[in-house]
Design brief:
Layout lengths: L6 E6 L6 E6 L2 E7 L16 E2 L1 E6 L8 H6 L7 E4 L5 E11 L4 E5 L4 E3 L13 E6 L1 E6 L1
Parallel strand pairs: 3-11
Antiparallel strand pairs: 1-2, 1-4, 2-3, 5-11, 6-7, 7-8, 7-10, 8-9
Length: 142
Amino acid sequence: MTLAMNAQLISVEDDETGTALMLIGGVEIAAMSCLWYGSACVACPTLGELFNPTFSCLFDESDHADWASVFAGNPAQEMRLHRTGLWSYRALGRIVAIEGPEHAALADCGGCLIPLPVTLYDPCCIGVYVGFNIQRLSVSIA
């Protein structure tokens, strides 16, 4: 199952790995730009254009994100990204998918589909609220 979302590109720095600023569900999200990666296959979006982003995350190893902390991390059952730095966020969301042989879980964090820092196998986890820290959010084209 592939889930899709639309983002509008607001600004992007000219160089690779600069900041890409996009609008998703009325919320501005800043991420490290990986929009030019693989650009031979898919054109990089232009300013104002809608595109289907894929997010990847660098998680802080010292954060000790484990199953218990992730599942206890969102008691208010929120769905949003709370910006804590240039590309860092507190991700609060609800699990919407567990995909592929890697059992990669995705959480809807207010319109942004964000991978979790833990591997999940049980489809009964879909619908559960989670919370975790992202050290660096990166965006590429789906």
